[in-house]
Write a structure and sequence with these properties.
Elements (H helix, E strand, L loop, with lengths): L13 E7 L7 E2 L4 E6 L8 E11 L8 E3 L8 E7 L11 E16 L2 E12 H5 L7 E4 L5 E4 L11 E3 L5 E3 L25 H11 L7 E6 L18 H8 L6 E7 L3 E8 L5 E3 L2 E3 L53 E2 L3 H10 L12 H12 L11 E2 L7 E2 L8 E2 L3 E2 L5 E2 L33
Parallel strand pairs: 13-15
Antiparallel strand pairs: 1-2, 1-6, 3-4, 4-5, 4-8, 6-7, 7-8, 9-10, 11-12, 14-15, 16-17, 18-19, 20-21, 22-23
Length: 453
């Protein structure tokens, strides 16, 4: 019954604390282990609970005589708090589940030569266990359908090598996921060129990196939305907890929390959106499960702080992609390319080479060439006739490479993600501009128009 008025009777709340040494072990009642505080939290925060146990020669409320109680040896054990009936039967799911991490003893002397004091135990929620799971190896394809275990972890969706396309150009292949699942039922790293989705990555890390003393972790809730994202993410040396918090990104309106039925732990993914949002073919659905708190007439509530924080409210969700790449021709004829070496110093010395030697005119032509070649191999001439650059005064325009009309080649995007090239010039700075090592062409794209289709 809910207590709402002066005539209502508030039912007493009963609870029971239980511990077990291993996840698969049996729960043991701890009737005198008292939960001082317990906090449940959604990621990235981790739940915490503090328990106390009075030890020594004590007469407990439900015992008729004094007895000696020793502090239980449960540090490192699993703990849960249950709501029960007055008869001790469990009601619903556990209030809280975690694992003891810290023990503190507060000795308070002795009674009848029996050590007396208080034991304080701090436990952390299930998320803390995932922060103990390092990502320090990987499964990778050996070709065909083979699998090798390597002692490092590639960065997801980042390939350094170049591959040839039928159009004759080289392109950077972004995906490094296999096109098939391995014997464990998950994708692995491969040169097949497939891209990992965030869901692929999470399924892989939950299969490979959960420590053997932990329960099985599974996905629940609105996790299918993760199939729409293909992030580049470094895994090597990180923990499962850190990676989950990056892949299930709050900045995308996503979140998750953990709960357990006592056998498996569910990573429950949810969105914080009141209405669905679709962008670039990816739909983030609204959260269908909402609740309202009506506490004004609840007389059994002694304290309930409701905090509204602007730090977690968003007026606008901005989707930012990678910096725009532009392909165009540069040449000396167009004035868009210039020599990047010292013409008056290094080039003059390079051109002269050994021609000033006293015996230069009397040796054979072959000997002259050999002597000049040895001279020009000096590191001082490394850039002469080898290094070109775009002038610092470049205005963002390029032509056909042979002196034709130049036009703006720097695309811009508006707040809706539409890409265009202004007729005049675009905002531009030479700061941190560099040439790509490969043309950014992707298979299956039509590059005959300005914007690939």
């Amino acid at each position: 019954m809910s207590a709402t008025g002066a005539g209502d009777i508030i039912a007493q709340t009963f609870f029971r604390v239980q511990t077990r040494a291993t996840w698969g072990g049996s729960w043991v009642d701890r009737p005198y282990l008292f939960p001082e505080t317990h906090v449940d939290a959604v990621a990235p925060s981790v739940g915490e609970a503090v328990f106390s146990y009075d030890y020594g020669l004590i007469k407990k409320n439900d015992v008729g005589s004094f007895a000696t109680y020793s502090p239980p040896d449960v540090n490192g054990h699993w703990v849960r708090i249950l709501q029960t009936t007055s008869g001790g039967a469990q009601i619903g799911s556990p209030w809280w589940v975690g694992r003891f991490d810290t023990e503190e003893l507060d000795p308070q002397g002795a009674s009848a030569s029996v050590a007396t004091g208080r034991q304080l135990l701090t436990a952390w929620g299930l998320g803390h266990q995932l922060d103990r799971c390092p990502i320090d190896f990987a499964q990778a394809s050996t070709g065909a359908s083979g699998t090798a275990v390597i002692d490092w972890v590639p960065t997801v969706n980042d390939r350094a090598e170049e591959a040839h396309l039928s159009i004759g150009a080289k392109t950077r292949v972004r995906g490094n996921r296999s096109s098939y699942v391995n014997a464990d039922g998950i994708y692995q790293f491969s040169d097949d060129g497939q891209e990992w989705t965030n869901l692929d990555v999470i399924e892989m890390i939950l299969k490979n990196y959960i420590l053997p003393d932990l329960p099985v972790f599974v996905l629940g809730g609105q996790y299918s939305v993760l199939n729409g994202f293909k992030d580049k993410i470094a895994l090597d040396g990180r923990t499962v907890w850190h990676v989950l918090n990056e892949l299930i990104d709050r900045r995308r309106g996503l979140g998750f929390y953990l709960f357990t039925d006592g056998t498996t732990v569910t990573i429950f993914v949810y969105t914080v959106l009141g209405t669905s949002l679709t962008l670039n073919g990816v739909t983030i659905p609204a959260n269908p499960v909402t609740a309202s708190l009506n506490l004004d007439q609840r007389i059994e509530i002694t304290s309930c702080r409701v905090i509204e924080s602007q730090s977690v409210q968003y007026d606008r969700i901005t989707i930012r992609g990678a910096r725009i790449l532009s392909c165009f021709s540069v040449s000396h004829a167009d004035g868009t390319l210039e020599n990047d070496w010292n013409v008056g110093g290094a080039q003059a010395a390079y051109d002269a080479a050994c021609s000033a030697n006293s015996d230069y005119g009397v040796i054979s032509k072959g000997a002259q060439e050999e002597r000049n070649d040895r001279f020009r191999k000096d590191d001082a001439f490394e850039e002469v006739y080898s290094r070109q650059r775009i002038p610092r005064t470049w205005d963002g325009k390029a032509g056909d490479g042979v002196g034709g009309t130049k036009t703006n080649v720097l695309p811009v995007s508006d707040n809706s993600g539409n890409v265009s090239v202004p007729v005049g010039t675009s905002p531009f700075t030479p700061l941190d501009k560099k040439f790509e090592r490969a043309l950014p062409f992707e298979a299956g794209q039509d590059y005959t128009s300005f914007v690939p289709s």
